[in-house]
Write a structure and sequence with these properties.
It is a single chain. This protein has 381 residues and is of the alpha+beta class. The protein has a single domain, classed as 6 Propeller (Neuraminidase), CATH 2.120.10. Helix content is 19%, strand content 38%. The strands form seven sheets. The protein has a five-stranded mixed β-sheet, with no helix packed on it. It has a four-stranded antiparallel β-sheet with strand order 1-27-26-25, with no helix packed on it. Helix 1 packs across helix 6 (309-320). The termini are far apart. Residues 1-10 and 16-41 have low confidence and may be disordered. One of its GO terms (cellular component) is endomembrane system. It comes from Handroanthus impetiginosus.
């Protein structure tokens, strides 16, 4: 008499999985067909050309030109303010066949490249690039094909090169390798699995050597040096924490937790006053918090489910309105200002807030546009 019971249980499980799969499919359809933008006169929405998305990080050259940003098809593009248009500046991979155009670039980004963190060396005019698949690269002031300068540290290849900053005095580059287990296209798996293979790395400009600064990190992401260069800030996206690593003073080598965020932090950018803007991708819901606190659940999801966990999470986040924000902090991690996006769609999935020339430039790893807002008219929350 146990056979009918087992059959009934299997049938129920099949129906539940079918229903769940249907929800995911509907969510994906909504993702691809929801491109509405809530316009107003206080900000400017700048579309990304060529079918690309994800202007994740920004950098301005020594003449104030730009911003420059990397997008999903492997290009680094430059904004020409006088002409109000984007132009191609550089690429991180010589393989460009099939890279551009309106399609799912996540399937080709390991071939075409996916530039994330960008920073100009102010003395040389060179642009340093953290590409999720190609490692650390550099390209000259005239752009073109970037040259790789670091692909591993201590014999272990970079798996997900992410964010960077440059010591403008020494030329040394500090950058994060978010995971050696999961590539960028599976970044949600890094979070829900509790992966702790992330690393903080230093590239020494004179010796051309890479040095491991910290390991066993849980999705290390944004990184930024202090104005005097005596410490470095970096975030762990999984734990939503902000860390301070002392590089000078008697505290050299010490690591301190100086802030805990209400959502998942991405990039950090220092403004001219020495304060730091942290982009918050989305708020951390109770369900995801529970999954993160029980890594066996996340690992089971990653292993057993025949769906793209990253896309499923993105779709659900869009449906339930997980809005992003920008948080400005002082050098001690105290909150100075919060820019909240809960009243408009354009601030979903914030990757970076860059304060430059009385403008905020707001990036996203998923949106097909950049938002520019005047600092004088952006309200405090």
């Amino acid at each position: 008499m146990t056979i009918p019971i087992v059959f009934h249980a299997k049938a129920m499980a099949t129906r539940i999985l079918s229903f769940a799969f249907g929800v995911v499919v509907v969510a994906i359809l909504l993702l691809y067909f929801d491109h509405s933008i809530n316009e107003n006169q206080e900000s400017m929405v700048i579309p990304i050309p060529g079918g690309a998305v994800g202007p994740e990080s920004f950098s301005f050259d020594g003449h104030g030109g730009g911003p420059y940003t990397g997008v999903s098809d492997g290009r680094i593009i430059r904004w020409l303010a006088n002409e109000s248009r984007w132009v191609d500046f550089a690429v991180t991979s010589p393989e460009r066949n099939g890279c551009e155009g309106p399609h799912d670039h996540s399937q080709t980004e390991h071939i075409c490249g996916r530039p994330l963190g960008l920073r100009f060396n102010e003395k040389t005019g060179q642009l340093y690039i953290a590409d999720a698949y190609m490692g650390l690269l550099v390209v000259g002031p005239n752009g073109g094909l970037a040259s790789p300068i670091a692909k591993e540290v201590d014999g272990i290849a970079f798996g997900f090169t992410n964010s960077l900053d440059i010591d403008q005095d020494s030329g040394d580059v500090y950058f994060t390798d978010s995971s050696t287990r999961f590539p960028r296209r599976n970044h949600v798996s890094v979070i829900i699995s509790g992966d702790n293979t992330g690393r903080l790395v230093k590239f020494e400009a004179k010796s051309k050597k890479t040095t491991l600064l910290l390991d066993n990190l849980r999705f290390p992401n944004g990184v930024a040096l202090s104005k005097s260069g005596d410490f470095l800030l970096f975030v762990e996206t999984t734990t939503c924490k902000l860390y301070k690593l002392w590089l000078k003073t008697p505290k050299v080598g010490n690591v301190e937790v100086i802030a805990q965020f209400p959502g998942f932090p991405d990039n950090i950018k220092r403004n001219k006053n020495g304060e730091f803007w942290v982009g918050i991708n989305s708020r951390r819901g109770k369900l995801l918090e529970w999954v993160i606190s029980n890594p066996w659940i996340g690992n089971a999801l990653v292993r057993l489910f025949p769906i793209d966990i990253t896309k499923a999470h993105l779709c659900l986040a869009r449906l339930i309105g997980r809005y992003g924000m920008g948080i400005r902090l002082d050098e001690n991690g105290n909150v100075v200002e919060i820019l909240d996006s809960s009243k408009g769609k354009r601030w979903k999935f914030v990757s970076e807030v860059d304060e430059e020339n009385e403008d905020f430039w707001i990036g996203s790893v998923t949106n097909s546009f950049v938002v520019r807002e005047k600092t004088s008219i952006t309200p405090n929350q």
